[in-house]
Amino acid sequence: MIIVRKGRPREFIGRLQSFEDLPIKNQESLKEIKIFLNKHLNKDIEAYVYGSYLHGFSDEFSDYDIIINENVNRNELDELILKKLNYNVNIIFSVDKISNILIP
Q: What's the domain count of the chain?
């Protein structure tokens, strides 16, 4: 099924059930982002997928939406990941598990 989201037609595949439902390329990118976050924050954190990847309508222009359980300067961290890893991300802080898709 095709849906229009943020002005772009996208294939809707449905909400993911597990991290392994993501394409391998996206799994690798998210793992790379999590490794960077762990090093930058100097601790092992929990990070979860949300947004278009979780809900099954991501496309080649989608950013990586990630929930972490550490209260950080989000804008600074988003810019640092773009500069160091060349990934567009949207990091949010939440103590609630909005998503059940944990990035290993």
A: 1
Single pTM value for the model: 0.86
Which one is predicted more confidently, 11 or 37? 37
Range of the domain at 85: 2-93
Tokens representing residue 93 in the block: 């802080």
Nearest by Cα to 45 from 81, 87, 98, 93:
93
CATH number, position 89: 3.30.460
Which DSSP helix (H) or strand (E) runs through 8? strand 8-11
Average the pLDDT over 54-80 and give the result: 90
